[in-house]
Structure formats: C-alpha cells, structure tokens
Write a structure and sequence with these properties.
Layout (H helix, E strand, L loop, with lengths): L1 H29 L4 E3 L4 H21 L6 H25 L7 E3 L17 H15 L4 H29 L3
Antiparallel strand pairs: 1-2
Length: about 170
C-alpha cells in the first residue's frame, strides 16, 4: 500500500503542477482579452478530482482491497500513458492550455499534436486516469463512482468548451 500511496501523492503533485501552469496561463490569456466560461462547474471539477485522490487512498485501507498484479500493473501502465497524453496536450496548447475554460477571441484552434486526432484529447487522459488510478490497488468502488460522476461533469464541461470555442473562432 505504501508504493500506491506514493503513486497517488505523485498524481496529486502533478495536479499542483497543472494548477501552477494554469494560473500562469490564465494571467496570460486574460491579459489578451481572454474570456472565461463555465465558472459554475469549475468548483465541482476541483471537488471531484480532490475526492478521487482521497478515495483512492481510503478505499484500499477501509475496504481491505488487495493489490492484484494482473489488474494493477496493466492499469498502472494506463495511468502513466494518461499522464503522458495530458502533458502532450499541455505542451501542444502552450499558453492556451488551462484547467479553466478561457478563450481568447479570434485565436485559432490548435490542430497540432494530439489535437490532430481528437478535439478534446485531454479528456481522454482524464477519463482513463479516473477509471485506472483507483484500480491500481483494486479500489473498484472508487473507480465506478468517480467514473460515473466524471462522465456527468464532462458532459457539461465539453459542451461549455465547445460553445466557448465556437464563439471565439474567426468567421
């Protein structure tokens, strides 16, 4: 369980790094007349991701979940791949990447990196991580509950992002 706790803490540290990058990028985009959309769902998203990390640590202990290598190792690989995809998205979008939905009017959509293949590749990383991280240590209840909650949240988030991007795209 100790190595799993370290993994969850590493993911939490990665989230803090994301927030540092996001804060810097938000200042940059807002200084260029960026407009924020979807403020109402942002606290829910923060709570969901914080709750996920907490429950990843609690369920294996409280429910005495074992580490099952046949499950844990493949989903650990998925967690690592999801992190790689996430940071590919971050580096591809550069200063336009953010945890908030901030759009600079007139800015062109990015069509490089993973955005050549998918409109929202970052959310693929999020979906994989939310499902896989708890399963590394057999926390199937956490994986199920947070996957469903994340699906509901992403329905709102993707709709918000698509609307904001459509309004900002040049005619």
């Amino acid at each position: 369980m100790q190595w799993y706790a370290l993994l969850v803490l590493a993911v939490a540290a990665e989230r803090v790094a994301e927030l540092v990058v996001a804060r810097r990028n938000a200042a940059w985009t807002l200084s260029r007349a960026g407009v924020e959309h979807g403020r109402g769902h942002y606290p829910v998203m923060v709570a969901l991701h914080t709750g996920l990390l907490v429950c990843c640590l609690l369920e294996p202990v409280l429910a005495d979940r074992p580490f099952l290598p046949a499950l844990g190792l493949p989903v650990l690989a998925l967690v690592v791949l999801a992190q790689g995809l996430r940071w590919w998205c971050v580096t591809t979008l550069g200063r336009y990447w953010n945890t908030r939905v901030i759009v600079v009017p007139g800015a062109r959509l990015v069509g490089a990196g993973p955005y050549r293949f998918l409109r929202h590749p970052n959310y693929v990383a999020v979906v994989v991580e939310v499902a896989a991280l708890p399963l590394v240590h057999s926390a199937w209840l956490t994986a199920t509950v947070f996957t469903v909650a994340n699906a509901v949240l992403l329905t709102v988030r993707v709709r918000c992002e698509n609307t904001a991007l459509a309004r900002a795209e040049p005619a």
